[in-house]
Amino acid sequence: MLIRHGRQLASEIPNSNFKILSGNAHPAWYGDSKKIIEEILAFLGEGEETDQTIKDKRSSESEIVEQATIVFTDIKIKIGINTGEVIRRESMHPFGQAVVIASRIVEKCEGEQILISDVSKQLTAGGNFNFAEQGPFKPKGFNENIKLYEVSWK
User: Fold this and answer.
1) 10 vs 76, 97, 116, CA distance in Å?
2) Where would I find the H helices in the chain?
3) In Å, what is the CA distance from 110 to each residue of 25, 148, 154?
C-alpha cells in the first residue's frame, strides 16, 4: 500500500522519479539515509558529495535561515505540509515556527488525509492539484489562525 501511495505522489510531482531502495526499514531515519541523500542530490543535480565535503560546508555555516516546505508524516498515512522560514544548524534537524506549524497540521489530520497550509497551497498555483478548503486552524502555541486545505489524492 505504501508503494502505491509513493507512486501516486511521484506522479503528481512534475519531472519526479519514483525509486524503491533496498532495505527493510521504511522510515528514512531508520534505513540507509546516506543512500537516500545521494538519490535526492542526484535528482536535484547536485552530484556526488563526500562526507568530508559536507563537513567542510557545515563548518563554514554556523546557522542558516532559509525558506523551506516542511512535510510531516505519521506512519506515511497522515501528511501535514507548511512553508516558511526554517533555521538549520550543524548536526541538527531544521527548526522554527514553520516546522512547528507543520507538525501541528499533521496532528490535525485524520487517517489517509493530507492537509496543507494556505502558504504552501499558493506555491502550487498552476499545478494540477485539487484542494478542498478546511477552514481556519489555530495551531497550539500560536495566536493567529491559518487556513488549511485538504489535498485530494485518491
Assistant:
1) 14, 28, 17
2) 2-12, 33-44, 51-59, 97-108, 118-123
3) 24, 13, 14
Structure confidence at residue 96 as a pLDDT band (50, 70, 90):
confident
Nearest to 82 by CA among 74, 73, 93, 92: 73
pTM, two decimal places: 0.57
Judge if 100 and 73 occupy the same domain: yes
Distance CA 73, CA 128 (A): 22
Of 43, 60, 77, the residue that ends a domain is 60
* Domain region containing 5: 1-60
Residue 122 has pLDDT above 80, yes or no: yes
Is the domain of 147 the same as that of 83? yes
Q: Which of 60, 75, 98 is the last residue of a domain?
A: 60
**Which DSSP category does 140 fall into?**
T
Ramachandran angles phi, psi of 3, nearest 5°? -65, -40
Is 74 found in the same domain as 42? no
Instruction: Indicate whether 40 and 67 sit together in one domain.
Output: no
Assign 124 a pLDDT band (cuts: 50, 70, 90). Answer: confident
pLDDT at position 80:
86
Please indicate whether residue 24 or residue 114 has the higher confidence score (pLDDT).
114
